[in-house]
């Protein structure tokens, strides 16, 4: 398949610039995986489409306030850092701009010196390795001076940092939110549990590669970024029990999906606790081993995420559903509306 096969025309005004209030007031397009039947609902209607014994699997990764604005020591000139992942004690791989200021040995400060950093090396891809200095806990300092790394298509300022976190976020380490989970409120999760729907958690730290465009027109030549995941034994057990009892395993988001399918590849004799890095690329033709349903937002044209959805629901049906969502003026991307495929 070609990258261009996954293109669709999206009016710019349908790109959501702010989250729905309350969280679960966003719209929900429910589509039958086999039937193709579409229902137009709201996210708070989700419980009507689920049944006792179903299992929702959610990614509990928490987003780092990974964007830092500061200045170069001695000159005071502006610099921006974007933290990608940790490589050592207070040592990180970052993207910086302007790059010409970020040579090895260059020093910077953020938040009037609350955080300081020195560039150690420049990698082949232009990313930098930097060492941070601060008094006390690094993550505490980062929370104080860092800003949420919102995707480039969101141009409005986010007033409340927590609106780019899920209500169940726990394990700090993502450079972007697992956005399918942004629609849940704590009250809604409690109500679903009362209904007999079970909840389980995995962790996948979302990398900025999520937003990296597919450059090769032959999608098989695309190289996926690697992300770290954790599947706890408790979640593996709940998935097995759900399957044995005839329930459905519903992935909340593409990140949870990629975690579960990666774990299944590592555990051919049945899911068990595992942890590691995954660069799994799911596109049409892939045979799913774990999930029976998927909750997801509407993704960018020609992205690996719309390819994953196409693998799960079928290419023709996916493109038709997206065209329907555009016609019905659903809100798209990270702060947009949701889709349930079941």
Overall description:
- The chain is of the alpha/beta class and 342 residues long.
- The chain folds into two domains: 243 residues, QueA-like (3-Layer(aba) Sandwich); 79 residues, QueA-like (Thrombin, subunit H), CATH 2.40.10.
- Helices cover 20% and strands 27% of the residues.
- The protein contains seven helices and 17 strands.
- Strands 2-1-17-16-14-3-12-13-15 form a nine-stranded mixed beta sheet.
- α6 crosses α7.
- The longest helix has 13 residues.
- The protein is globular, with a radius of gyration of 21 Å.
- The two termini are 25 Å apart.
- The mean pLDDT is 95.
What attributes does this structure have?
single chain, 342 residues, alpha/beta, QueA-like, Thrombin, subunit H, 2 domains, nine-stranded mixed sheet, six-stranded antiparallel barrel, 17 strands, globular
Uncertain segments: none
CATH superfamily of the largest domain: QueA-like
Q: Which fold name is given in CATH as the topology of the largest domain? A: QueA-like
- CATH-scheme architecture of the largest domain: 3-Layer(aba) Sandwich
Order of helices and strands: EEHEEEEEEEEHEHEEHEHEEHHE
Structural class: alpha/beta
* Biggest sheet details: 9 strands, mixed
Helix share, percent: 10-25%
Straight-line distance between termini: 25 Å
How much strand content do the residues show?
Answer: 25-35%
**What is the overall pLDDT average?**
95
Text of the CATH class of the largest domain: Alpha Beta
Output the strand order for the largest sheet: 2-1-17-16-14-3-12-13-15
- Gyration radius, to the nearest Å? 21 Å
Q: Count of helices?
A: 7
Q: How many independent structural domains?
A: 2
How many runs of DSSP E, i.e. beta strands? 17
Tell me the overall shape: globular
């Amino acid at each position: 398949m070609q990258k261009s096969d996954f293109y669709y025309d999206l009016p710019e005004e349908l790109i959501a610039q702010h989250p729905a209030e309350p969280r679960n007031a966003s719209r929900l397009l429910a589509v039958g995986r086999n039937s193709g039947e579409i229902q137009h609902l709201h996210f708070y209607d989700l419980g009507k489409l689920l049944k006792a014994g179903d299992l929702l699997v959610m990614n509990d990764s928490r987003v780092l306030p990974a964007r830092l604005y500061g200045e170069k020591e001695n000159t005071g000139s502006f610099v921006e850092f974007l933290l990608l992942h940790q490589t050592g004690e207070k040592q990180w791989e970052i993207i910086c701009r302007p790059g010409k200021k970020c040579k090895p040995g260059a020093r910077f400060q953020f938040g009037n010196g609350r955080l300081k950093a020195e560039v150690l090396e420049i990698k082949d891809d232009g990313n930098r390795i930097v060492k941070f200095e601060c008094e006390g806990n690094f993550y505490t300092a980062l929370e104080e001076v860092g800003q949420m790394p919102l995707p480039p298509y969101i141009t409005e300022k986010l007033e409340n940092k927590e609106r780019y976190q899920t209500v169940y976020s726990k394990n700090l380490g993502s450079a972007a939110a697992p956005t399918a989970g942004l629609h849940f409120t704590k009250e809604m999760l409690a109500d679903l549990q009362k209904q007999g729907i079970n909840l389980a958690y995995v962790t996948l730290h979302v990398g900025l590669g999520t937003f990296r465009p597919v450059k090769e027109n032959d999608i098989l030549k695309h190289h996926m970024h690697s992300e770290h995941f954790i599947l706890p034994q408790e979640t593996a057990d709940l998935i097995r029990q759900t399957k044995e009892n005839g329930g459905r395993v519903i992935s909340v988001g593409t990140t949870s999906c990629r975690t579960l399918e990666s774990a299944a590849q590592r555990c051919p004799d049945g899911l068990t606790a595992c942890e590691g890095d995954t660069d799994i690329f799911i596109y049409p033709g892939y045979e799913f081993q774990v999930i029976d349903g998927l909750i997801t937002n509407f993704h960018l044209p020609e992205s690996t995420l719309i390819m994953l959805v196409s693998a799960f629901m079928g290419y023709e049906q996916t493109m038709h559903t997206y065209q329907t969502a555009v016609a019905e003026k659903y809100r798209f991307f990270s702060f947009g509306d949701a889709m349930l495929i079941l």
